Amino acid sequence: MATLKLEIVTPEAKVYSEDVDMVTLPGVEGLLGIYPLHVPLMTQVAAGEVIAKKAGQELFLAVGEGFAEVSQERVAILTDMAIKADDIDEARAEEAKKRAEARLQEKLSDEEAATVQSALLHSLTQLSVKRRRRV
């Protein structure tokens, strides 16, 4: 069976790089399911959950905003945040959310507000992915 090379890269590191059977990613216009031999495309990635299916197993990752390049044999996601669901520290993400919400109540410059909004989005995304995967 054909596979896809899934690579997820942030400014800090290559977070994931493996062959997978299928990828589901959060596009700005909705979820996008990608199988091997998919038509090539570029799309904007919304903050949310990437699901990588491999040999009957699913891996879940929280990702921030970014871009994805899809070819017939590869999916490359460039994002500002990516973390495996199992590696998310729920208490830490909850604390980051509370700090960001408190900061947004202060008088901030546009640049500061954008930074805090991004931090809030990252923590909300992590919490959503972690809590959805709780058994």
Instruction: Give the helix proportion (percent range).
Output: 25-40%
Structural class: alpha+beta
* Record field, number of beta strands: 10
Distance between the termini: 31 Å
The CATH class of the largest domain turns out to be Mainly Beta
Adjacency order of strands in the biggest sheet: 2-1-9-8-5
Mean pLDDT: 93
In CATH, the topology of the largest domain is named ATP Synthase, domain 1
Please give the largest β-sheet: 5 strands, mixed
Give the count of helical stretches.
Answer: 2
- CATH homologous superfamily title of the largest domain: F0F1 ATP synthase delta/epsilon subunit, N-terminal
Number of domains: 2
Q: Can you name the CATH architecture of the largest domain?
A: Sandwich
Order of helices and strands: EEEEEEEEEEHH
Given the C-alpha coordinates, what overall shape results?
A: globular
Low-confidence stretches: none
What Rg do the Cα atoms give? 16 Å
Residues in β-strands, percent = 35-45%
Brief overview:
By secondary structure, the chain is α+β, with helices and mostly antiparallel strands. The protein has two helices and ten strands.
Structure description:
The structure is a single chain. This protein is an alpha+beta fold and 135 residues long. It folds into two domains: 4-85, Sandwich (ATP Synthase, domain 1); 90-132, no CATH class. 28% of the residues lie in helices and 42% in strands. The strands form two sheets. A five-stranded mixed beta sheet has the order 2-1-9-8-5, with no helix packed on it. It has a five-stranded antiparallel beta sheet with strand order 4-3-6-7-10, covered by helices on one side. α1 packs antiparallel against α2. The protein is globular, with a radius of gyration of 16 Å. The model has no long low-confidence stretch (mean pLDDT 93).
